[in-house]
Structures are given as structure tokens and as C-alpha cells.
Fold this sequence. Notes:
By secondary structure, the chain is an alpha+beta fold. It folds into four domains: 4-93, Zinc finger, CHC2-typedomain (DNA Primase, Chain A, Alpha-Beta Complex); 102-224, DNA primase DNAg catalytic core, N-terminal domain (Alpha-Beta Complex); 248-431, Dna Topoisomerase Vi A Subunit, Chain: A, domain 2 (3-Layer(aba) Sandwich), CATH 3.40.1360; 452-583. Strands 1-2-3-4-5 form a five-stranded antiparallel beta sheet, with helices on one face. Strands 13-12-14-15-16 form a five-stranded mixed beta sheet, with helices on both faces. Strands 6-9-10-11 form a four-stranded antiparallel beta sheet, covered by helices on one side. Helix 21 packs parallel to helix 24. The longest helix has 36 residues, at 519-554. The chain is globular. The chain starts with a helix and ends with a helix. Mean pLDDT is 84; it is low at 213-217 and 435-450.
Amino acid sequence: MDSPVLKIKERLSIVDVISTYLKVEPAGKNYKAKCPFHNEKTPSFFISTDRGTYYCFGCGAKGDIFSFVENFEGLDFLGAMKILAEKAGIELKTYQNKEKDKSSLYYEIMDEASIFFEKILLTNSDAKNYLLDRGLTEETIKDFRIGYAALAWTNLFDHLLKKGYLKEDIEIVGLTKKKDNRYYDRFRGRIMFPISDSSGRIIAFSGRLFKNETSTIEEAKYLNSPDTPLFNKSNVLFGLSKAKAAIRSRDYSIIVEGQFDLILSHQAGFTNTVAVSGTAFTDSTLDHQNKINNLGLVRRLSNNIIFAYDGDEAGIRAASRSAMIALSLDMQVKVAVLPIGQDPADLIKANILAWKDIIKNSVNIISFHLDRICQAKTDLRLKGKQIREIIFPFLRIINSSIERSAYIQEIKTKTGISEVAILDDFEKYLKGLPAEVKVIEKIPEIKVINTRRQNLEKRLFGIFFWQGDNPEHKKVIDELRQNFEQDIGADAYKNILDLYEPISESLSFEAEMWYGNKIEALINDTGEMILNLEEEILSDEANTLLTKINQKEQNKDKNDFDSDLKHYQSLVEKIQIIKNRRSK
């Protein structure tokens, strides 16, 4: 079959793809931009139109359109391919993996569940009328794939079993719970809002209680999917897949709390809105697996952010916590000032123009809190105490001295407190922070980039796992594999094999997508990758051994020194042989 990867690359140039994410400018026959994978002021991210690749001289990030979308959007290969196929106008249905890997299967189960919930909503007039009464249109309900989970214990579970899915897989994706060896639906009697990753694949659900069962103890207004292999609540925001293009083009994002807030905001034309419902912010752009999280992705799309939470005290506290994290990531943070006791959904339904004015008149977070302090009828001593408790924590994490100075001037102007007194109190505040208190500072982004060796290993072992469809080609690939194993040693080969065997189906499918029936390219690339990977492996071993030799020399340790040195020299010779083979 023809490779969809090659078809996509034929239709999309790397400049066209990257320019939808970054501002690019010509640099000779190539292009350059500020790297999205680390903080920089001067562009060091270069794009080669001839090769269809990019390289950052600052952090070493490199690859093609697929790796760029994977790393920028925080997606796997298939998620990146879905986005690029849609851009290229290529249908992927004919390229489905014959034996689905687990992640593909999980996505399929979640999509089937969403279809099921959507159909149930069509048959439940009460639930549908409730959505219409909240101000949603029929088109919006369909566009956001809103559904309904009936008041029954195993409706969805039974449906998915009939579709041929295993009960264990249904539980793993968070759709069912197990008790006393019996399965029952996690969501019952709830309006269902699907949560998608940035490519639009459904990864979780948030269910709003619509009708209660007297026999259940599930009384929470909202019930969200648990963390699963597809869903981590800090890695996604509700509505992000629909909002990301508008965030890029308008250069700011609006963050709301609830699903109805987001959906009505989109319906009103503010399509650059995302919601935190069912998700969570963390004070870093990456999670423990080095995956880009929700706020990290929003920052890549735009550095400007407006928090539009409910107008009550709980909403203000939540906005302040989120704003603190955004400021620590060097974002420009504003707050939309809502009337007390109202949320965005109420305002938009009542008066769209009022909502537009509130967004237009949003203020920076420090000015917002300072105005609230000054509006209160309190004496100067209490105002000073509130400034120390509320304003100083924000000032602490602002990196720019100019910005901090401007805020201090604003405090002086609005309160009448002298600049000297404010600065003196601020210095005392900083000195008085307990050592164990974590001061949120600017957190540099860590590269979400695999090493060259990791990329080579994944691509090469994907080919080994697949080997093509023709028996003759399989034989050639297997001979190359055996030579590779012999060159690096059985133990080293087994270590790599053990590392990637758990994801063999995914890597095999990726190889199939890359090469299709391009057998000559497959065999040539396999040989080239083997040489490159052998050099990487032997170089790593040689560098480690050289460090060991130097340490022994410094410590005058003669134990095995000569044998280590001979081993090192043999490694250097092998590396040179590989280089000579590659240059022929």
C-alpha cells in the first residue's frame, strides 16, 4: 500500500505546517523561528524546505512535520498523523492497523461510548430540553457531541460487550467500576461531555448529574473520568482541540471553569475559550513523563491568558491559584471581572454583549486584587496587611524588575502608601519566607525531544517488528537484524528489545505507515539506521569506558587498567570501521 506518511508529506510542506504554529521568517533559502521547545529571545530554530526537516541550534530539537506536531501538541504518532491528514485532506480509514495496539483500541472504545451517549440523548426529551433551556442550540449539542448516560447500572457496559470489547479494557479506560467481581457503569443519570486530546480523539468524560437515584451514594454534581492510559487531568483542557486555532490567531486564551461556560462562550463566538472542568493545572509545563501539560500547550499557542471564573469568592480563589501558576510560567495574566454570584454561562445566555464587554475590560491579576483591597472601607494598616498577604505573593514570582516596579507605583498611587514603605515591606516579606516554603519561580521548559539514539532505536525496531509484507524482503531485513545483533552483542540487543517489545505493535504500525510498499527505501534506510545506531551504542560505551579509565589513572588504580584500555581501543576501531562503511 502507499504510505500515508509520504502522501501527507507530498501535500504539506514543513514551512506550511510549522507556520501555523510559529511565526517564521526567511533565512536565505531556509526559514527560522523562535524555538517552541525552550525559552529563547533570538531565533535559533531553522527549517529546511529542501530536506523537510527542522533543527534548533539552542536545544537540539530536530525532526520532520510528524515529530514537530507530536512534540508541540503532546501527542503520539497516530495523533499527529490524524491532525496532519486532516490538514492534507487525506482519509485514514483505509490505513487502519490490522491488529490494533492497545492505545488505538482504547480510543475506539471511548469513541463508541460517546456515540452511545449521543444516541441516548436523542431519546431522552427531558435531558435534551434541559440543554436547550440552558441556551445551547441543536447544532452546538451535536458539535460538542454532548450525550446522556441513562439511569441504569450496566447500559453502556452491556452495549460495549455486544460490540466485542473486553470487560477489562472497558474498565481500564474508566467507563466502568468493578465491585464483588461485577461490573457497573461509572456514569449514570448524567449529561455527558466528552473530553478530547488536542487532535480531537476522545480520552475521557465529564458527567453532570441530571437525575438522582435514591439507591446510589453518587451525589457529586460533576463526575469525571479517572486517570487512565489515555487521560491525565493535567495534560488536557476541555475544548482545547476546538479552541487551539482561535487561540493562535487571536493571540490570547480565555479560561473558564465549567462545560456550559465554555460551550456557550464558543456559541457566542469566543472560540478561543477552554475550560478546566475535569482537568487540573500544575506549576510546570511538563508532567512526570515529560509530556506537555495543558497550561504548557496553551502557553505555546499564546502567552496571553484571561481567567474568567465565577464571580463568587470560590471563583476568585480558584482564578488566583491558576493565575499564580500562569505567572510563574512568564505568561501575561488578566482576570475578567464578573458580577458576584454569576458565571459566564449565565451572562452569555442573558446578554452576549455584556460578556463581550467583560472580556474586553479584563484587568491584570495584581490590579484586580489591588482594586478589591482599595474598594473595601478599611484603614491603611489593614490595607497594608492585605497587600502583604495578597499582592506580594504575585510580585514575588514576576521576573521582570520593570513590571514589578510598575506595580509598586500602582500600589503607591491607589493606596497612598509611600514607595519606600512598600519596598521595605516587600524586602522583609521575601526575607521572612520560611526555608521550606516553595517559591514558585520561572520554570524553564524541558525539551520534549527524544535523543538521537532513542529515535533510531524506535524507528529501527519498528522495522524489525514489521519487516514488510513480502517473504523475500522479510528475509533481507532479518539478515540485517542478525548482523546488527552480532555487532552490538546479544546482551545489548536483548536490552533494547525488552525496552520496545511492549509497544511493538505501535512501532510496527508506524513503520508500515512510513514505508508502505517503498521496499527499496525500507531496506536502504534499515542499513543506514543500523550503522548510525551501532555508532551511537559503541560511542556511548566508549565514552563511559574512557571516563572509567581516566578515573583509574587519576587514582593510580592498576586493576584491569590495561584490559580496559585495549577494550576502549577496540571500540574506537569499530566506530571507525562503521564510519568508513557509511562513507562508501
